[in-house]
Batch of 2 targets.
Target 1
Amino acid sequence: MSVAALDTHPVPACVRSAREGFSAVPTTAWDGLETGEVRRLIGELSRLESQVAAHKMAAARVLEKARKAANAGDGPRPGTGTSTGATISFDFGGDRGSADALVNTAQRIEEQTTLIENALAAGVITTKQADLISRALAKLPDDVTAEQRERCEETLLKDAQKLTLKDLRRRAARITETYRKTTDEVDADEDEILRRREEEARKKTSFSMWDNNDGTVTGRFTLPEAQGAMLKTALDALAAPHQKVGTVNAATGEMDEVGFGQSYPQRLGHAFATLVEHLPADSLPSNGGVSAVVTVNLDLDTLMGGIKAAGLSDGTRISAGEARRLACSAQIVPMVLNGKPLPLDLGSANRYFNRSSRRAMEKRDGGCTTPGCDRDARWTEAHHLNPYAISKTTDIRDGALLCPFHHHRAHEQGWIGRINHDGHVEWKLPGSDTWQRNTRWRP
Ligand SMILES: [Zn+2]
Ligand SMILES: [Zn+2]
């Protein structure tokens, strides 16, 4: 194409004028506008985004067709092996995943839909809605006629205007009701869609975890959405609320803001660690006789406050304080080796505080008993004040509630605690000679 022809072709002219229009306005220009107008304009920009996306898809299709045509020639030539997604991401942004998704969606929209492309190009729907509707249409039963198919598309397009993306997806699963005669048939169609989706999800399910060799492991997983929802619910329930947590500074009386990290991902991470510690490992199916239970192996000395490191049954080494903390909370079975060949098994269930003693402690302590801590009872663990009591008793006079952070601290630093004559839990914190208690719950 000659330079003159390029000048008159509508696409380069349109792209150039859009770029020039935006380049001429600095982002600081938004400051002078009224909020009502800003809101309207954000909507307009979102519609513009859809329009741009429609054109990017059209462009991606042109490139993809050119690539296929080139490959269909006499064998692969240099450069032609590269995918269209790779080419697009190479030219700008380097995001191969998004570029591949763009090419796929563009093709699916062309193959499966008739109205979506124009709706996107007119800025009526978003790319996500377009993607979702095209996927739903691709999953219609084989017996669907062209006319029925179009009615489904029309309906989804209309529904997209008023539904959230999540609701639109639910709607899409029952879209055959636009042409089926009975609800039973629609139920059957939806069930088939869900069944296939679950089957696909099971195929994609995976878990991997690797050792960072710095005391942490990192992992990634893909779960079916049902199990994902279960995990999310459990983590959200366990994640402590966003509050200040730390230890009172003896000099200032203020709380040092330390704690376990306060961002949402960090709190979810600690919730995940708590979840893992509380797995009912002894009721899990055993793997061909191999126990799912990790035990903590430690010396009686370590249990009583010594500093000799301990080990988990798989060989992982842990500090003395961490071993005591794990032995203190439920679920992890401590094996006290005590220098004898036969471990003294402390794993019996009745050494832990049971439900009623736990409730009694909640009533007595109200929350974490660390001076200044504001975690209420829901976010606490029951700690044994007397380490030897771990092996012997579930008497609440040996117990005190601590939030997970302070429970770690208590074992790490060997806090000394007692119940005073008023029935309050008191602590002699490291570096202090006085007994202190948390007055937040019981002034
Ligand atoms: Zn403890
Ligand atoms: Zn606390």
Note: The pocket of zinc ion (ligand 2) is lined by residues 368, 370, 373, 375, 402-403, 405-406 (CB under 6 Å).
Target 2
Amino acid sequence: MAVNPHAQEQIKTIISELRILYERYRAAHAWTNQQDIIGLCIMLLSNALIITTAWLWFINLVPTWFTIVLIAFLTSMLHELEHDLIHELYFKRHKVMYHVMMLGVYLFRPISLNPWIRKYWHHFHHQHSGMPFDIEERGITNGDRFSILRLLVLPDLLLSGIIRMPRLRKEILIEYNKGNLSKNDLRLIIRTVLVGLLPFGVPLTILWYAFILLHLLQWMGYPLPQLDALLSWIYPLMVLLVVPNLIRQFALHFVSSNMHYNGDVEHGNVIQQVQVFMPWWSYPMQWFCFFFGATHAIHHFVVNEPFYLRQFTRKKAQEVLINNGVRVNDVRNIRFANRYHHS
Ligand SMILES: [Zn+2]
Ligand SMILES: [Zn+2]
């Protein structure tokens, strides 16, 4: 299905107005030319702050809740950097540095999808956003009916994958038979399922459930003193890596899976693919996904700008989008399995 002519005009207008906005901003701020160095510095600073916070927690200078909240916020910046790296916005011609940065943004977000594997699915997401075979978004529950179970599996890719696997498998085969997914896509889906959460995601998520189970057993009156040593070894991993990333992933996956439409949009119609999503009650979540709901729709029109420029110009860019037909704060779509045509 081709994009309708009215939307084509709207998309063209948005892209050209956003390009002018970015050009003007770059012309007025010469520092933006140092893109590689800026990306590297943000990564080093975020990682250094995470390590410092962890050290302060180890020596009992900061409380556990503060450590978790701060690390969750810092890792949200690393996620934006990873996304920029997937679009090759830093060290494009310096492969070693590029992969060092890919590793650097992954290490403290270890329960997320391996970024080298995510790269293919994210580009696929841009090509086919909103379609039932947009694997990246279907992977984080976009298009599912709203339920407590959907909320429960949102932060946890392993649990979500296991519980939703039979349905996703059926859907993928339907899309393959329609010709929307190629043999190569199927091969990559299998690879993603098998190794996408390795080397860190699967072991850490299993440890997380072991941690909960052991605490539950103790709480139910089965003291397991022989396991105390194990628990004291697992505890720092949970506080410093798993829990902050579960919070961050809940926020990101909630915002992302509700700001992208799914299932009934025109193929390639960016106006219908996304919305500006920042209702007041989503603000606590926006802090843990670096205001993804406010800026990701802009990215779908102009992909090759780094996340911090999107933040600095977001007010004007949002106006451009909204004035040209992109929806804003359409929370009703949550009740209608993220369909665009829901009223
Ligand atoms: Zn992107
Ligand atoms: Zn997107």
Note: Residues 228-259 form the longest helix (32 residues).
